[in-house]
From TrEMBL, chains A, B:
Source species taxonomy: Bacteria, Pseudomonadati, Pseudomonadota, Alphaproteobacteria, Rhodobacterales
Alphabetical UniProt keywords: Hydrolase, Protease, Proteasome
InterPro entries linked to this entry: Ntn_hydrolases_N, Proteasome_sua/b, UCP009120_prtse
Pfam families (UniProt xref): Proteasome
Keyword Membrane: no
Protein name: Putative proteasome-type protease
GO cellular component assignments: proteasome core complex
Alphabetical GO biological process terms: proteolysis involved in protein catabolic process
SUPFAM superfamilies xref list: N-terminal nucleophile aminohydrolases (Ntn hydrolases)
Single GO term (MF): peptidase activity
Amino acid sequence: MTYCVGLMLDRGLVMMADTRTNAGIDNISTFRKMFTWSVPGERVLMLMTAGNLATTQSVVSLLDERTKAVDEREPSILAVPSMFQAARLVAETLRGVIAQPGTQGQRAEGTFNATLILGGQIKGGPVRLFLIYPEGNFIEAGGDTPFFQIGETKYGRPILVRAYDRAMSFESVVKLLLVSFDSTVKANLSVAPPFDVQLYEAGSFTLEPGLRIAANDPYYQAISAGWGEALKTALDSLPDFDLGQDHQGAHKAG
Amino acid sequence: MTYCVGLMLDRGLVMMADTRTNAGIDNISTFRKMFTWSVPGERVLMLMTAGNLATTQSVVSLLDERTKAVDEREPSILAVPSMFQAARLVAETLRGVIAQPGTQGQRAEGTFNATLILGGQIKGGPVRLFLIYPEGNFIEAGGDTPFFQIGETKYGRPILVRAYDRAMSFESVVKLLLVSFDSTVKANLSVAPPFDVQLYEAGSFTLEPGLRIAANDPYYQAISAGWGEALKTALDSLPDFDLGQDHQGAHKAG
């Protein structure tokens, strides 16, 4: 499995991805699922991947034009004029990679699937965030739903739904995401640190250095340990259920 | 879908079940998923069901012996000598109901499946809690995992893992469960109030009246509204991520 989240902020974009891959439960590895392209002052693109690792690595290699010699590469993702066209290019590449095994007699549906999150900004346009499906179509984050999750999305969702706010600072959002990732890691063995974090400040057109947060990172350990206590305090702050009182709309049944 | 949780406490047992059933997304209904049997002073049995409604209703009717006239009924679940034998009886009944359509040319696997949680106490034995699989086998809650969830288990799990404690009072546990159910309701349309709650005090051999908590219950509304704020306060109580500081085990990548 995998867990990746991309969040729109007033200040820009935050992307976080775990690095665990697994084939069954007894064959786990660490692979990067966060990829970036940029032309300083002109465009920044960030991609996160969930699904079949052969598929997602192939998509990234094709976008990078790694089929060509190093000095002949001019990735078209660095030439498309808008984020929408970038999303189309990535989606088409993904669909092509998934379709290929099917033409050679292998069952491609399901097994070779992948889902991607693409975010970034290209000069002349706003910051945009897309969720790209294996079918090659995609949706864009908007005001009502300003974030996307892929992979094992359920355990970490309630805290995002409750506490995320577009006005948050980068520092608070990384904390929020670590809580969301930690809840997921505690419940699903196929999601694990290190986590890759990529921040992008709207209008900067500058790719910040990526951060990698390891399992033994003191801050992550402090959040992981502190969150249990903070939750208990939060629960204590709410009134207990009153067994003696009759609740409106309640009925007693024997 | 469905969401049911059964929790062992030092004081006894707590069971909570939602009441929404759905066939597709445009055909929803309200049905009870919590069933009880008791012989005052001798035994209390509580059953929660998730899965195909025809299957689970059939299991409950068979356990109730509703195939017989009312005055001829002596449900064997009221005669078995131990909780283990009660779990075997329920599991055998479930397996039989699921297997039946298969013998008549219908595909029984998957479609007609159901999973059950059985808890209670029979004189001479301790309080026990079982998770019963559609295959007709079952597992028992123990010290390491003193609770079971069935149905849509993921959204509501992190809060249970973090905040649940066997020493809790019934009043606190109902609050905790309402938070867990509320997180699930907010994320999955096929889980919804009213919620049925059943408390059992160890050694009492007395079935308490069941509580039903409706969507408009003022306490549930207070918990649902207060939890968002409480979570934000909890998050604020943890230190923000320091973007300037180099984190141990972190590396920067371009």
